[in-house]
């Protein structure tokens, strides 16, 4: 039985290795017809993924990264209740100031709850709890916590367009 379980585990790992990810900075055309993604190596890293909004920043798990218009560069206004819906993207042990495919300067800032958040172009970065898988952009354009939430471009700017497929924008909290 152990041999069968080990062979099954290897088969699953082999299939997982056949995914359609590309490294940050690779052309999106390397995967025609589907989203192109980079897989960040560890917590505290960012990458670029093509979604229904176009290219956006993603966190270490491949989740869309958002900014809040109520924030200002270098300052997070998202407090405890906000952070329960919009977790800050945590920095890793060391935070590079630049990453392949990302033109925004990468940094960190303090959150109102006493933690740290990664920044792109100075903007504090967050994910959204209702984005259940990489490529989801359900937080796009949501109005809550004093501002509007937008996905972040590789240049560190708000992506203000609506998703190209229906159902991507939901109500606020």
From TrEMBL:
Highest taxon in the source lineage: Bacteria
PROSITE patterns for the chain: PROKAR_LIPOPROTEIN
InterPro entries linked: Lipoprotein_repeat
Signal sequence interval, chain numbering: 1-24
GO terms under biological process: alkane catabolic process
Keyword entries, A-Z: Lipoprotein, Signal
Pfam families reported in the protein's UniProt record: Lipoprotein_15
Coiled-coil intervals: none
Record-given protein name: Putative lipoprotein with Yx(FWY)xxD motif
Organism name: Oryzihumus leptocrescens
């Amino acid at each position: 039985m152990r041999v069968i379980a080990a062979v099954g585990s290897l088969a699953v790992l082999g299939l997982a290795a056949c995914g359609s990810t590309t490294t940050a900075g690779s052309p999106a055309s390397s995967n025609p017809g589907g989203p192109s993604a980079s897989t960040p190596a560890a917590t505290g890293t960012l990458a670029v993924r093509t979604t229904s909004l176009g290219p956006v920043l993603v966190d270490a798990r491949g989740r869309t990264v958002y900014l809040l218009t109520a924030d200002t560069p270098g300052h997070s206004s998202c407090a405890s209740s906000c952070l329960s819906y919009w977790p800050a993207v945590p920095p890793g042990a060391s935070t590079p100031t630049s990453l392949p495919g990302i033109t925004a300067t990468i940094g960190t800032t303090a959150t109102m709850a006493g933690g740290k958040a990664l920044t792109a172009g100075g903007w504090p970065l967050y994910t959204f709890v209702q984005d259940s898988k990489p490529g989801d952009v359900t937080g796009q354009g949501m109005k809550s916590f004093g501002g509007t939430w937008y996905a972040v471009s590789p240049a560190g700017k708000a992506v203000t367009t609506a998703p190209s497929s229906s159902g991507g924008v939901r109500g606020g909290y």
